[in-house]
Each structure stands twice: as structure tokens, then as C-alpha cells.
Amino acid sequence: MRAAQLTSYQRWSILIGASVMLSLSMGMRQSFGLFQPSILHDTQITSADFSLATAIQNIVWGVTQPFVGMFADRYGSRYVMIGGVFVYMLGLVVMIFSTTALAFIFGAGICVGIALSCTAANMSMAVSARAVSPARRSVTMGAISAAGSIGLVIASPMAQALISTSGWQIALVGFIGLACVMLPSAFSAGKADVIEIDKADDVDRPLGAVVQSALGHSGYVIMALAFFVCGLQLVFLTTHLPNYLAICGLDPSLGASALATIGLFNVFGSYACGWLGGRYPKQLLLGGVYIVRSMAIAVYFMLPATPASTLIFAAVMGSLWLGVIPLVNGLVAQMFGLRYMATLTGIAFLSHQIGSFVGAWGSGLIFDHLGNYDMAWKGAVIIGLIAGSLQMLMNVRPPATRDELDGALPRAA
Questions:
Q1: How many domains does the chain fold into?
Q2: How far apart are CA 299 and CA 303, in angstroms?
Q3: How distant, in Å, are the alpha carbons of 260, 272, 289, 392, 394 from that of 284?
Q4: Looking at residue 129, which CATH number applies to its domain?
């Protein structure tokens, strides 16, 4: 079956399933920072331990993502996504009973990291891209990414309310309930496995040759390296903004409000990036996102933190939060087609997660040693400006095939 042959029900079933799965998967994960003050108070876990668990989560997510993508590209995505939901639940259960750093790292770091490879942006974008025409692909991925932020609007206020009234363990039980909702969503999104790829989006080459071609493509390499700064900036904020606000003497509920504001404004920002990506050069939009983000971080941390400045900052960052997802996935599809999209975006995502590792753990170490986050946010700004500038200059032409290269060679006399 091809995408054009899908009924409206089949298409919407895939897209809504991908949206809900992404929304809850990311919403819970991005709300983990709200648990930090309570966990530090009730257990032997330190700020550095919490940061290390988050960093390991991100690096495990990044390292496993290419292999998960390869498996899904070859055998189908449904069982990958369903299996990821069960691993997510296991991670949450382990977190509930964690009293030591090692147990917490296993649950929040390793289990949740593997689960995110199976349930988050890469898999959601891969299945949704198959369900629509090329003309609608960018705006559809933007819409999926936008819907994916609704989970943060749900998860962060729910977590903060349960932490305040019943404790952080009960809040994690609530997250297990949200994970249960992900199961039918993953099953529904997996219907994309039966869709055949159109010839225009296919790559008639083995996976190894395509990966080798991508790693030798200057534009792909620049895009992947620039993706590093995206992970660093976002995970620095989701992990450490609640603690930064507490240091500034602001109400703990402001952290939840800030995360919810990020999620709300991301709905509009992600859709806008997807819509713009279908009309303007994606590399320019992507570089612009990195640069504006960096400027917003610089302004916020240079000024005294107040409830008003925090919510304004959250709104600006939310507008730029997950808008990179449709742009990066759109660039991969533009250069290499859909056949190995999950694999190639997974490889690029490894760079993103290395940045997340640095943003989470590195910022925690800076805080533990210096007592503030000054060096952390300054570093995030500098590399963001550099990455955004390089991203705008990337080569977006598809790599030449062997036949094209042979045809360009002069014939022997």
C-alpha cells in the first residue's frame, strides 16, 4: 500500500498515534528536572548524581538511536515502539524505589534512555513522513512535533502538583499511568509499516553504502555537528532551570509553569517551523533557530531572574524548542530519501545527545564546583552562535549516485 491509497481514517490513525506517543514520551522526560529538589532531599542522591543520570540517559538515547533506527528500517517500527513503552515503564518503576545513585542511574539513565530511542522524535517522524505526500511532509512533521509538546503541558503541572501534595514517588506513579496511554498510540503509529515508499523517496542502495555516503557528505556532517548545540542548550534548561530558580529564591511552582509555557509555545513554534520549512531553505531556518535561542539564553541569564522574565524567556524558548525536528528530518529526507531516514536521523541524533550529556552533567559539575551556572550558560551561548552560523552555510544537495559519477567521467578514447 502506498501513502496515496490510505483512507483518511488510516492516515489520521498513524499521525495521531505518533503525536500522542511523542507527546507523552517527551513530556515526562522533560519534566524530570522538577523531581530534583525532592529527590536530593529524601535520598542519598546528589545534584551531580542526578545530573549524571540525566547525562547517561541522553548518551544512551543517542548511542542506541542509530541501531533502533536500523532495526525499524529493516523490520518495521511497531514492535520497536511498543517494546520501548514497556522499557519506559520499567525505568519509572526503578526510579520510584531508588535510594542510591546507582539504582537511579539505571532507571532514569539507562532504561529511559533506551525507551526514548524507541518512542520519541526519530521514530515519530519516520512513521509520519511515510503517511503523507512529499508536498505535505514538512508541515506534517511540524504538526507532529507541535503536538508532541502538549505532553509537557500535561506532565509538568501534574508532576509538580503530585510532588507538592503526595510526594515524588506518587508523581512517578502518575507518569506510569501516562506511559500506559502510550501503548495503543505506539500500536496505531506502527500501521505505517505497511506503507510502501514511493520511488522518488527511495534509495536503491544498501544501507552501508548510504551511511558511508552520508558520513562523507559535508552538509550532513555539519548538520549533525550543529545538532550538538541543540541538545546541550535544551537539556541544560530542562535539568537545571528548576534548581536555578530555587537558588534565586523563586517559588518552586515557577519551574513547572516555565516548562508548561515552553510546551504551550512549542505547539505554535514547531508547526511554524514545519510550515516555513516547506517554503524556505531549511538550513537557514535551522541556523536561525540556534542563533536566536543563544541570544535569548544570554539575555535571560544576564538579567535578574523574576517570574515575569522567566515566563517570557520560556515563551521565547518554547517557540524554538522542537522546531528543529521537522527541519532536521526534512533535510535528511531531502538529501537521502525516506528508505533509511530513521537510521540517518539516528546517527545525527547521536551528536545531539552528546550535547545533551554535556549540558546535563557538565552543568551539574560546574554548579557543584563553582556554586553557580555562569560558565554553563556562557558556554551554551558561544557554541550556539558558532553552530548556527555554520548550519546556515551547509551543503543541501543530495549526494551523487555511482551512475551519476560514472556519467560525469570523460569516456576513454
A1: 1
A2: 6
A3: 28, 14, 9, 5, 9
A4: 1.20.1250.20
